[in-house]
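step: validate -> pass
step: tokenize input -> pass
step: predict -> running
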Amino acid sequence: MVAIREREQRKLHHRLSVGHAVWWIPTRPTRPTSNNPPVVAREEETVPQKWSFGAALKDLLENLSFHCYGKLVEHGYRIQERFFWLIFHITALSVLIAFVWHTYKDNTEVLVTTIYNPQYPVSNVDLPAISVCTMNRISTRAVRNYAQELDKDPKQRNASFFYKELHAFGLYYGPIELDDYDKMLKLQGFLDVLDTEPDELFYNTRRRMRALTPNCSDNFVSCRLAGKSFDCLTQFKESITSYGFCCTFNLHGNYFKERPYSQRFFGADMGLSLTLKNSHADNFYSLHKRNGFAIFINEPGNYPDPHSGSVSVRFVNCGENTQLPIHPKIIETVPEARHMSPTVRKCLFEDESTKMSHDFNRGYTFSKCISACRARSIFSLCGCLPYSIPMFYIQGKVVRVFCTLQHMECLRRYKFKWLNVITSRVNLIGLEHELEDALYCPHCLASCSEIRYHVRGAMALALNGLYKPLNSNKMDANNSYGHDSSELAVVRIYFAETHIQYFRQIIKNAWYEIFSTIGSICGIIAGFSLIGICELLFFLAKQLWHAYKTELKAELRHSHDYAHSQSQSHFHSRSHSHSRSQANGRAKATQHPMELLILP
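step: predict -> pass
step: emit ->
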């Protein structure tokens, strides 16, 4: 019975020994003897002992919460089996790292675009701003009047001379061939003196080009909206575009309000119908050989510039009936994204500002930001601002000089730079030179919410014979016109579908969703858990602390030994010098001069 009891106590003691107890309280078993039978040690009587790093690591692997790591050090396994488990764990860790890295890269895009409403009524969509620009940018009649004003030349040059010289104004719209560049500079010097108002410091190009551009009353014949006629001049306002002065409908978003279902502007007859005219005799400088108009379609409040994005441009020829069906698309970002940094969500809301701190007029948009960045670059490089760019794009209260003919060489030199805009730098092989020459605008982020108007499926039919516009109201002035159809252009702008797709950008994954995804991957592949990670971190911290204390004790011991050796050497030196001085004294005492005694 005594032997059976001793064996049971040995088994119980083995279960409570190292490798089976809590690993951070290391204990060593005591071998039982015949005089000292084994006694089960209680937890409060366990005395911690210092282990080596290898022994502590072995105990950690045996008791760690991670799966199967104890098989690397467990007794009874051959070297082949341990090698198999080592390869298995290395492979599992490699797959785990690959999955976690892919999850991290996949979550760098914090916003994802989804369809919020695939059947959103088009009657709730805001009507776009529509700008009508005649291809004839300079009126012949206006140039003749201007030449008459310049007839006060002291050199007695007549109006015919200035009429020919004013062909150089075509440089404001595009490149033209000039025989003598110095002659153009002399013309600009003459205009700086004779065509400057008393309150102007420099030649006001905007004021002069506004007078030379054909008026809106010269371009419109009739206008209809949702089947009802209206006065064109009351709804179309003169505004600035990249083509200069044009006539814009819904400039300030007057049709943002809710409207009845009958005014959803769906279909060619229920949209905006315009009858335009362009006289051949009044063409002084045209952007195209054929007479016609350029139609800008964009979100209200935006500056119509095709090179800045978010603007659809279509060209309409005289003598044709052109239909421009619009396919709007709404993109909205959830308000919860405002809590994120703009650099993280990679977009800006309309009430947010950029580092440029511009007054973007009706809120921020990506198109306005690019236009402002281009305007600032033009003003910095050439010292002037083209008259076709809004002045509020330039920061600060500086003297704003509109570009004149003397600035044309500078504008032509950097044209490639201003037409190529980048918002982020990416190393592309073969395009290094283009990236350096392009305009860099890193502060311009995409718009978080916007409405995009795309024109697809445009078609044009010829106008045969005399065309008489449909007018329900008898209006003379701009709404009555009878002439050859070769000078007329009919444009129908309307929504092409009754329902559109409404897109919304939502937060892709919250922090707890990302945490749970990574935790699931770690648990499935490698059996990791938060408790096991805490155990591993505790082990590493404990080993570092022991290493630090060992190093500190070694340093203190070294300094103590050094001080002790110094004191010993100092004591020995003093003893040696003292003994040496005593020996010298005895030697001096024994050395007396010899005396000779002479006896008589």
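step: describe -> The radius of gyration is 45 Å.
step: cleanup -> pass
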